[in-house]
Amino acid sequence: MSETLEKTKTEPTLKLKFYSHATLECGDIKRTRAFFDEFLGFETVQMSPASFWARMGGDQVIVVVKTAEASGEMNFLNHNGLDVSTDAEVDAAYEMVQRDAEKWGLRKITKPTVVHGTYCFYFWDLDGNAWEILSNPR
């Protein structure tokens, strides 16, 4: 194994339990929650008039918070990854994203290609959050 790939275990400074959530901004809580529910397929729970939790396939949640003034478009490298099992499912998702782009305010939709060793594409939602749909076979 290459020295750059070897993992060395050191005691962490902080004794944390687990990574529980990430946070995204939105401008219209009702519309964004519908996008998460109806288009992306997340399970969502309205936690307050200005926030909801979104979860898919695990314990980690995304906390989506309505802000008066969004901080702008998410940087490409800070995207949110959504996995499917096959390249064909990536292609099918790409077609659906293109088909529903106007309805959900989706933009900057890239064509599927191999990036960092997996087949994927990217798009930005109505709130400027970046998403990647990628094949991640078992």
Automatic annotation (TrEMBL):
Residues 18-136 form the VOC domain. This is VOC family protein. Coiled coil: none annotated. It holds the Pfam family Glyoxalase. Gene3D superfamilies: 2,3-Dihydroxybiphenyl 1,2-Dioxygenase, domain 1. PROSITE patterns: VOC.
